[in-house]
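[step 3/7] inverse_fold.run input=structure_tokens len=468
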């Protein structure tokens, strides 16, 4: 009987292996793969485990100090990431080394458990929205290209600043693990691609379910069955990626299948590390560093806010900037009662001008700048800021999520807050196709607290895994 059971199990495992191989092969056509996902072995304290994306609260070290207090004495992804608030600190090299050592220690101590070839269906409630749905998969870096004019299957929506990559590359190089905060957009207004898979998976038992610290809301992750991948996701992807579908939607057949919405510089850093490994000639094509974990999310999800990312300029005389804008673009200035009125005015479309709000210790104004018809406000403003900083190198630009902190920073001395209008969701991908990628930090998928929290991990060092 034991021999019979062994043969049955061996046969079932063989059939499952062949099925999964066929599924992986077809997913690869779309630049996707089922990853080996690592999650904490002990799921009793996931609230301390999961921390927010490293590129958030970059102007608020007090946020990260509080996170350190909350996670003290607990296994936490805070030990496995480098918050970007510390990127320019004098001890950044020691911090990166500590991240790598913590990764190796967590693996050695068995803190993480592997879930083989598993897509994870995610359902997230944030303080602002309920039921945001995402699908955790791996993307093939061979099919992602951030260079200008790229026609790759996976492309950025925003400009990649190559000068910003080196410190992020240093974090990934030598790291045995990756933890994803990258959100990749599916332009699917009919909601046929990922939502049915997530709805099916979320009727089962979750891999985890937890409250998120620091006002992040609640999240649950559910394993997606091979059957759901084979019968729901793959047929939807075939239809979605068909050249006739892309041509009908965008007027071109080489539109991106997937567009990077958040975390583009992290994905670009992963690409750079993979290209360096590949060029060494010492790695196989199925090396785990060829892939990167991401969360797929529907651009048209009603639970996905798309917010502008505002700007703050420090070490500046606000009046000098208004004079600079007037010289360059014949800027007209209108005083307003506050940031709310500024927000209402800049949403009003004009054919040959763009509007944005500026605030300082003396109050708020709206600047109207002459421009070519169809110019995006964020493009003109970013170019203006870049020009100003080039001529005034003492000035420093930071990128701010949310109007509340923006208004707070406006009250600081020698500081100017810049309020931008929202991005038009249905036009996002068509705009990128027509005019190229948007400027860096053009938009944000939700407020800061709604960003992805680190939960899952994946091995990217061949020494720790033979899986791709």
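[step 3/7] decode complete -> sequence:
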């Amino acid at each position: 009987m034991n021999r019979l059971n062994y043969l049955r199990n061996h046969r079932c495992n063989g059939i499952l292996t062949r099925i999964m191989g066929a599924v992986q092969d077809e997913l690869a056509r779309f630049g996707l793969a089922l990853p080996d996902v690592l999650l904490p072995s002990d799921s009793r304290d996931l609230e301390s485990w999961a921390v927010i994306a490293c590129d958030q609260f970059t102007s608020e070290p007090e946020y990260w100090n509080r996170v350190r207090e909350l996670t003290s004495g607990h296994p936490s992804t805070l030990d496995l990431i480098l918050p970007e608030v510390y990127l320019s600190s004098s001890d950044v090299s020691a911090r990166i080394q500590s991240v790598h050592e913590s990764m190796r220690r967590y693996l050695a101590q068995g803190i993480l458990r592997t879930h083989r070839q598993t897509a994870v269906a995610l359902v997230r409630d944030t303080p602002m929205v309920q039921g945001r749905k995402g699908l955790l998969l791996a993307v093939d870096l061979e099919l992602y290209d951030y260079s200008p004019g790229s026609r790759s299957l996976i492309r950025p929506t925003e400009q990649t600043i190559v000068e910003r990559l080196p410190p992020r590359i240093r974090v990934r190089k030598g790291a045995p693990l990756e933890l994803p905060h990258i959100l990749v957009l599916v332009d699917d207004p009919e909601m046929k691609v990922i939502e049915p898979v997530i709805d099916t998976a979320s009727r089962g038992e979750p891999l985890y379910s937890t409250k998120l610290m620091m006002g992040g809301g609640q999240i649950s992750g559910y394993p997606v069955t091979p059957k759901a991948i084979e019968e729901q996701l793959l047929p939807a992807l075939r239809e979605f990626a068909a050249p006739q579908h892309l041509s009908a939607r965008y007027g071109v057949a080489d539109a991106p299948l997937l567009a990077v919405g958040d975390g583009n510089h992290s994905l670009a850093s992963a690409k750079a590390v993979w290209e360096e490994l590949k060029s060494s000639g010492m790695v196989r094509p199925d090396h785990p560093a060829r892939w990167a974990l991401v969360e797929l999310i529907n651009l048209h999800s009603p639970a996905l806010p798309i917010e502008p990312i505002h700007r703050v300029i420090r070490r500046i005389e606000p009046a000098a900037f208004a004079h600079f804008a007037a010289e360059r673009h014949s800027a007209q200035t209108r005083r307003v009662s506050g940031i709310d009125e500024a927000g209402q005015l800049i949403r009003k479309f004009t054919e040959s001008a763009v509007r944005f709000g500026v605030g300082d210790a003396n109050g708020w104004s709206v600047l109207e700048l002459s421009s070519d018809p169809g110019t995006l406000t964020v493009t003109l403003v970013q170019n203006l800021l870049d020009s100003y900083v080039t001529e005034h190198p003492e000035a420093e630009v930071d990128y701010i999520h949310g109007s509340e902190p923006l208004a707070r920073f406006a009250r600081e001395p020698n500081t100017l807050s810049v309020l931008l209008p929202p991005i038009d969701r249905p036009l996002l991908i068509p705009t990128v196709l027509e005019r190229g990628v948007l400027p860096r930090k053009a938009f944000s998928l939700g407020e800061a607290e709604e960003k992805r929290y680190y939960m899952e991990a994946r091995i990217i060092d061949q020494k720790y895994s033979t899986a791709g």
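[step 4/7] annotate
The longest helix spans residues 2-29.
The chain has two domains: 20-304+449-464, 307-422.
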